[in-house]
Amino acid sequence: MRPIVLVPARMASTRLPDKPLADIHGEPMIVHVWRRAIEADVGPVVVATDDTRIAQAVEAAGGRAIMTGTHHQSGSDRIFEALGRADPDGVHDVVVNVQGDLPTIERASVRAAVAPLAEPATDIATLACVISREAERTEPSVVKLVGSQIGPSRLRALYFTRATAPWGEGPLYHHIGLYAYRRAALARFVSLAPSPLETREKLEQLRAMEAGMRIDAEIVEAVPLGVDTPHDLERARALLAPKSPRTS
Q1: Are 34 and 47 in contact (CB under 8 A)?
Q2: Is 29 within a domain?
Q3: What is the average per-residue pLDDT within 5-12?
Q4: Rounded distance between C-alpha atoms, residue 97 and residue 128, angstroms
Q5: How confident is the prediction for the chain on average, in pLDDT?
Q6: Residues contacting 92, CB < 8 A, separation 6+
Q7: Mean pLDDT for the stretch of residues 189-202
Q8: Containing H/E element for 156?
Q9: Average pLDDT, integer, range 225-244
Q10: Both 91 and 117 in a single domain?
Q11: In a domain, 242, yes or no
Q12: How far is CA 98 from the centre of its chain?
């Protein structure tokens, strides 16, 4: 596999204005995400954005950014346009989509997202984590992955839902919205119209499932913090605070 990592970022957040440029210990949040993706070492990393301020912040840190249109409805659409600009010759056959608001994403998680594509029948790979907090089992904002175990740390996705599922004893899995697409699968996905279940659950990945595409998930140990509010930003700053040197 020859992956490329694309990080979609835009300024449209209403709960946290100018979110990608939010300062975290002297650097914009998008730079933290870009750096962690670089450190994962799965392939070249490109930020896809429609705002020159984001592009300039990434380039000032030594990264690469590509400008995209302002019309995109989703990050998937944005990275598909960016892919054509970043790799017009089709050198990269796997596209990893790392959301631009995950400054605490673990490098190992970015690498893990690619692993399920070692199975040739898998179209899209993603991540899941066992839900450990009781409140999250019934929280609609926590998306659950319902799947069949096909390996010690791998699930074949059967459904994604905001409901508590499946019923009965056993683990529930928190879906983590980091995806790795085969290039052809991404092209097919963005060509599809929104599906009925996608519209009902407000979960884009159901469009792929309703079209018969196979999604497998790697189980990881931690859910990264998604930054959507000022409170989330303060949590990210605390988690990423430089460690104080030890005193003898």
Answers
A1: yes
A2: yes
A3: 92
A4: 15
A5: 94
A6: 2, 3, 4, 43, 44, 83, 183
A7: 96
A8: strand 154-161
A9: 91
A10: no
A11: no
A12: 4
